[in-house]
Write a structure and sequence with these properties.
Layout (H helix, E strand, L loop, with lengths): L44 H9 L2 H7 L3 H4 L55 H14 L5 H20 L15 H17 L3 H11 L5 H20 L17 H17 L6 H14 L3 H14 L9 H13 L12 H11 L16 H6 L8 H14 L4 H7 L10 H16 L3 H11 L8 H15 L16 H10 L3 H8 L6 H17 L3 H7 L18 E3 L5 E3 L1 H10 L4 H13 L44 H9 L6 H13 L16 H14 L4 H5 L5
Antiparallel strand pairs: 1-2
Amino acid sequence: MLMANLLSISTVYASSDMSCDGTATLRQPSYSCGAVPILSPGNDTRINAMLLMAGAGKLARVLADPKTVVQSTDRTSQLVVPFSYDFSGWIDTSQKQSDTTNGNSTDGAQSDSYADGEGNICRSVTSGTKAFNDAMAAAHDLPNDDVVRLRAARADMAKACSAGSSGPVWTKPAGLKSTLALQYATYLDGAYAFYRHDFVSATKAFASVSHSADPWLKETGLYMAGRAQLNAAQADAFTSDTSTLDPDRIVKVSLGAADTVFGAYLRVYPQGRYAVSAAGLKRRVAWLGGNSVQQGNLYDKAFVQWSPATSNVPLGQLANELDSKLLLPSSRDTNQLQSPSVLAIVDLMQMRATGTDDPTAQKPLTLKQLEAQKPRFAGTPALHDYLLATYHVYVDRKPDQALALLPQTPGASLDYMGLSQQTLRGFALEDSGQQEQARQLWAQLIPLAKYTLQREALELALAINVEQAGLVDRAFADDSLIQNEAIRATLLQRAANADLLRAQAKNQSTSRALRDIALYTLLYKELTRAHYPDFIADLAVVPDQPADPLKPFALTGTTGDASYACPSVRDVASVLQQNPNDPRGLNCLAEFVRHNPPAYSLAEDPLMFRQVPQTASNSVVPPPTLGSAPSQFTGKVYQRIGSYLTVIGNAQAPADDRSYALYRAIQCFAPAGVSECGGNDIPGETRKKWFNTLKASYPRSKWAQSLKYYW
């Protein structure tokens, strides 16, 4: 997603630290709001859960396709990896799904997302009405008069439920003739009691109809008896705002009954119309009962069995549920977890570098603790090896030990687990000084990338490698595997030397957008780093119809404040070529930069390229990021204050030029005393001296008369 907008995941609490740094790298030692398609300590736990537990084919269906995420006009400004993923919202009512297993409605179990257990109890009344009416239509032994009365009674119940306690009292239909109709009426009794929170009466009614010969009543009665018992168990267990669970107020008998009923339902109806919902509600039973072992096993099964067609929650919502019901520090007990997948997610989270000295913070995972978990990974030894290797890369920095634990060659099919193993291997190679071997590995993996976001991730890894090695030109070779335009644009702006920029500005085999970026970067850096002869020569490459950022280079002149006139930028460069200290030339160079701030994200130190400083409590070395290597473009980074100081220090400068330099230098610090053009180490006394000099030496100048303060 947009590199500058990687703080878009709204639920920051989700097993995360309370800060986010979306940086252009695959390595994430700390929590990041920019996710990567590999198992990483810095990923949100919900991303790691989907990567590890959902399977490559399923995950590819929910991750955004880069072709649709990034519009053609934004391909040079948006990285695809790291990516953002929106987990906001517990109940995603915009993605209602219908049960296609038997062609029947699910009484709200599927379309209303009951597996989360959230929301008003009446939310299933509409779908329940449809299921009830469809079932009667399929029951050929029901007399038509009975059907009419039962339909009307169900409709009245829906109105009563919607109106709440202030609504009319519902009455059971009278005058029913058939035994089956009386059973349907008993079901309505149970439903009405359920919606009125009379769960004891509801359970009795539903249990009664579960013995009916009618297949719908038999199945639905059993399922609803479980739901009634679950609601009875948790009825008084939450605070008034439903935000806090008090385990001591859970009715254990009802909770056990619900678990038994849902288990019985799933044994009798493993593919039943409510099977997915019953499985989800068993997860809630396990959560309410504090049974983390059962929770872990049930989440394993839920992710394995998840599919867009049959599951009652989107995959992201299932990850939300796992995170809030099991992975939050207040919920989990890692000593009890037996699920290797869930335990791996927790382990990765506990390997994060928090950068905090708070003694109350969660203690990081130790190598001894991780090694002691090996028996719990008996069925998945490769996953345990991966966790150990991750520890050696991210925590204790022993890359050789990590390499010994990872597969030496990628598998024939590079799924997300295989990609995670190989990228970790690449990191370990780089950390052990084997940059060339890592570069070969990235190049070997890119053709194997088949799933969503894999190629973009590997291109990012390769680009960072060649940039750190000072081999940026390889990224632009004819046979380069780095094709992502945002990556190429960043390398052009941040790392390329003048020769590479000049070549790419003229490269007709690349896009017009990249050519414009290359030319703009070349001209801007040449002008501001005193490469004046080259700048004048390269102006000839500016097209007759330039893109907007290039237009200032084609202007015939500029005007500063109160008509401080400047010639064209070509003439400014010509003057400075003859005399680098020419007062008007320096002022006009500063004016050009002031009126035309760096375009194409060419700021000299944008947040996304900064390295996170190492702290005493954070022993993990910040990883290299795209654009963080020293630029190969020669010359010192330009700051406007330097031009002003040179003119101010020149006592022979014309009065108009020197007074304007004094005025502009003072204005740099307006209005808060922080300079926007460099020189923040200049003390206030010096700025006061500038102000007094301007007022005393040039009292009749436009600049002295207009300036009332210094900052």
